[in-house]
Amino acid sequence: MPAPAARTSRSHDHQPCWPDRPDGRQYRAGHRPYGPARHHRRADRPERATAGPPARADLRRLHPTGRRRRQPRQPPRLRHLLAPHPRKWGPRRLDEPTPLEIRQFAEEVRRHAVVRRNHRGGAAAAEHLISALRCVYHYAIADRLLDPADNPATRVDKPRRQPSLRHALPDAALAAIIAVAAETGNDPGLDSLILRLHVETACRRGGALALRRQDLDVEQCLVLLREKGQTQRWQPVSPTLMAALVAHDDERGNGAPAGQLLRYHNGKPVGRRRYDHLWQRIGKHLPWVAVQQISVHWLRHTTLTWVERHYSYAIARAYAGHADSSDAGATVTYVKATLQEIAQALAGLTGERHPLADADPMTAMLTVPTPMGT
Questions:
Q1: Which of 49, 100, 237, 337 has the most CB atoms less than 10 A away?
Q2: In 3D, which of 231, 180, 178, 184 has the Cα closest to residue 204?
Q3: Dihedral (C-alpha) 94, 100, 105, 111: value to the nearest 10 degrees?
Q4: pTM over 0.90
Q5: How far is it, in rounded angstroms, from Cα 335 to Cα 318?
Q6: In Å, how far are 79, 123, 126, 160 from 76, measured between CA atoms?
Q7: Within the chain, how many helices (H) and strands (E) appear?
Q8: What is the crossing angle of helices 99-111 and 123-142, to 10°?
Q9: Run of H or E including 148
Q10: CATH no., domain 171-357
Q11: What are the pLDDT digits (tens) for 193-214?
């Protein structure tokens, strides 16, 4: 009986057949040739294109969650609206969607918008969708994947934005809100400090949460507000509020100048949810607060309306920290309110003297100094 053939390694059965070495010997099994043959295979490859748009650029290429290209993190609203975007139009070319199709897509988003208490017909959802598509096409044009003339999103008008329902609160209503915040809850001191900070500075919620210990100028009673759009501005506050902010940091701060200022009893930084719980609690004691959906942004309307009525539009604009717009005319460049005028408005609002509001700026500039020896 003949002896069975010796079993060979399975790896040898699947080795590719490489050419012989220059010295006539065979390559070892599992060893890939390097040298002239490898360079020869590279030379056979077609040269990579160095310029010009790709032959086919689809919408998935520009989507923030795509695999090939990751764009900077988008706001939650844009990410939510862009989520069905690659499934609906992903395989299509960038220049295929028409303005009519975008309008139909926006109308579909408007009809299926989530209905909440502040629902106003879904116009905001349609506006955010068009903004998201414009953002996608903006990246496509920047990467030279599309000609600017072929951008269909710019030829679709956004829905007209409805006027805001927020307005300035009457004095009695504001006093009732402050009283409820100071008498209820598990941290009335923190809630009262938050409300007073927003009433005096008319800052946004993000500006209050971004406040740090090093942003306090105790001597001149100024706070540095860092708000949306990477804007920064010095805002006057009353001596009473400045003392309360310093005491709050001494009691609850972690000692780091760059740490967040507003904190709980346990030292944990305050977040956005604190504002939600605060206004939910106030709404339980004051039903009209819940019905009108009053939030901290209403305090900004209240303060700025008071400043505009008692002083001027220029001072109210500077008090709010609004950037100069090009459609306001060239005169706005020359009549911007000064920090001293903002401090004077704050002194009239709080009834307290402010270090920057003691002297009249024009009087100080026009005073002629007395000659020496007279």
A1: 237
A2: 231
A3: 170
A4: no
A5: 11
A6: 5, 17, 15, 22
A7: 16, 3
A8: 140
A9: none
A10: 1.10.443.10
A11: 999 999 999 999 999 999 999 9
